[in-house]
Amino acid sequence: MFSNWVCAMHYKLFILFLLVIFSCGKKHKLPILVIGHGGNGLDFSGSIYHDNSREAIDLALATPNADGVELDLRMASDGTLWLYHDEQLETETKSSGCVGDKNSNQLLDIRYKSLNKEKLAKLDQIEVFFEGEKFLFLDVKHSNFCQNNIQDVNLYLASLSDWKVKVNNPDKRVYVVLNNSEWIEPFILSGWNVLFSSDENDLRNKLISDFPEIKGFVCKNKLCTKKQVDDLKNKGKDIYLYEVRSPKALKEVREKNPTGVMSDDLQGSIVEFK
Amino acid sequence: MKSLVVLFFFLTFTLRAQEPNTSIIPRQYSLCSSFQNEDIFVSLGSYYNFKKSFSFEFRYGVGVRRTFFQQALFSKVDAVLCYNFLKSDDLWSFGPSVQFSTLSLAPKLFKPIQRYYAAEIGYSLAFGKKIKGLQSSYIGFRTTEFSSASNLYSYIGYVFQLGLRYAL
Q1: Which domains, from first to last, does chain A contain?
Q2: DSSP track, chain B
């Protein structure tokens, strides 16, 4: 009796399988830039490599229809620029302390705790495979958590300018994402495309009036409404949403239709928008 | 990928066509969910015992996130070989196993944009009589490639599986 039921179930499951296959629908393409957050995604189980590692950046830039990557920038004590998201090294690596307190030699051999044990990446390494077709967003981390201070903006700008001349990329496709409003002016004066990271609508409007040259903003998906996205676009400013991991969040982004999405699920975003 | 899917259903249906009492291989069917790097997969499989302690399983699955939530077919075919060196009166079995998988993401039917290949080792545990509970875990090497480029990207992958198997 039960065997017969299983046999019947077997064919039903086969029909279900066919339904699943043929239910694969085609979505409308949207002009949303798909940017890999931290390379191939941050804090996302589907990310193959650790965020901000050379492997993650390489994979993200090779992914068809991915428009670029967003990377987290930290300055070491000798002025070299490294890609690392967190405040402290111990959270993601076997080392301890802060990037800002270490020099290049000390950072060179540090590896992430992840399964693949990727090495900490230096910004200089990106020029090797960044060929100018894709967008690059550099999230400038301005503070040193261990010293509880703000780093020297002029030293930061000098290090970035040294890197910029080495990279074969039109200026239009390299953006800096700032988190400190006092750094906006020096970066704009140095010719950088500046985005500011803020979830507060009032602050964004104030910054637009103070710095009309600002290119746009970066905002958490949950904290940015469709109306705010539309307002910013109407003012001629770019708006990029981040913290996008789940299929639900991808659908929310589709509804809001921002300039771009800094997605943790890069593959999912490409499936959804491209 | 297409041929593997056809092979899966060919094996499943031809072996099912035999009478249970005359069949040379005991047939069992499994329903499994796999948690792995790329997605959460639900799979259907055919399971065969041979040479007392060895078993072979062939599974076909789809990724929940991509297939059900995003309507992009993310399919997976697994071939699993297990040596059940510990077992007790068909009530439970445990042993090392190897799993070979191929995954394919195809937003348009049979036009994959990304493929994955995996070779993994782990263990497999089954418990129960007619309906068995399954648990297995694997770790191993994977590679992925895009249809539009020839570069291969290698990484270490993991799989954690839970499921049920029914013996006819």
Answers
A1: 26-273 (3.20.20.190)
A2: -HHHHHHHHHHHHHHHTS-TTT-SS-EEEEEEEEEESS-EEEEEEEEEEETTTEEEEEEEEEEIIIIIIH--EEEEEEEEEEE--EEETTTEEEEEEEEEEEEEEESBTTB-SEEEEEEEEEEEEEE-SSEEEEEEEEEEEEEEEETT---EEEEEEEEEEEEEEEE-
The residue ranges of every structural domain in chain B are 2-167
Judge: A20–B149 Cβ closer than 8 Å, yes or no: no
pLDDT tens digits, A150-166: 999 999 999 998 887 76
Inter-chain CB proximity A48 and B37 less than 8 Å: yes
A16 touching chain B per CB within 8 A: no
Q: Is A247 on the interface with B (CB under 8 A)?
A: yes
Task: Please give the distance of CA A13 from its chain centroid, rounded to a whole number.
Answer: 40
The complex scores an ipTM of 0.79
Q: Of B105, B107, B149, which is closest to A62 when you measure between CB atoms?
A: B149
Report yes or no: B97 at the A interface, CB cutoff 8 Å: no
The percent of residues above 70 in pLDDT, for chain A, comes to 85
Distance to chain A for B51, nearest Cα, Å: 25
User: Is the Cβ–Cβ distance between A101 and A77 less than 8 Å?
Assistant: yes
CB contacts, 8 Å: B66 with chain A: 267-268, 271
Per DSSP, chain A holds a count of helices (H) and strands (E) of 9, 12
- Those of residues 24-63 in B touching chain A at CB distance below 8 A are 29, 37-39, 44, 60, 62
Where do we find the tokens 């039917």?
B109
B122-168 pLDDT, tens digit each: 999 999 988 999 999 999 999 999 988 778 999 999 999 999 998 77
**In 10 A of CB A194, how many CB atoms?**
23
Tell me the pairing of strands A68-75 and A135-140: parallel
Closest in A20, A45, A63 to B146, CB measured? A63
Residue A154 CA to residue A189 CA, distance in Å, equals: 12
Indicate whether A244 pLDDT > 80: yes
Query: Is A115 within 8 Å of B156 when comparing Cβ atoms?
Result: yes
Tell me which fold the domain B2-167 belongs to.
Answer: Porin (2.40.160)
